[in-house]
Design goal:
This protein has a domain of about 40 residues. By secondary structure, it is of the alpha+beta class. Strands 1-2 form a two-stranded antiparallel ribbon. The chain is elongated and about 70 Å long. It contains one helix and two strands.
Length: about 90
């Protein structure tokens, strides 16, 4: 007698006949349906975006921005590489 195993999504519980595509785990014990994979992908992308945004913040919690004020000035002990005088 053969045993027929019905595949179900281990995340949402839908049976194989309700899922279009599913991914199997290495040992064929875990299954994830296409819909759950899509939802997990979106959740991971959101978390990565949040993490990346957090890494781009100043100590004050504000996002890093280019200084729109005056251009960076050389320290007094640093001489400019080239000094030019425009004539004419």
């Amino acid at each position: 007698m053969s045993i027929v195993r019905t595949v179900i999504c281990d995340f949402c519980g839908k049976p194989e006949n309700e899922i279009g595509f599913y991914a199997r785990g290495i040992d064929d014990r875990a299954h994830v349906c296409e819909s759950c994979v899509d939802q997990l992908s979106e959740a991971i992308a959101e978390k990565r975006a949040e993490r990346d945004a957090a890494e781009r913040t100043d100590d004050d919690g504000e996002p890093d921005r280019l200084d729109e004020g005056e251009p960076d000035r050389l320290e007094s002990d640093e001489a400019p590489l080239v000094e030019a005088e425009v004539i004419g």
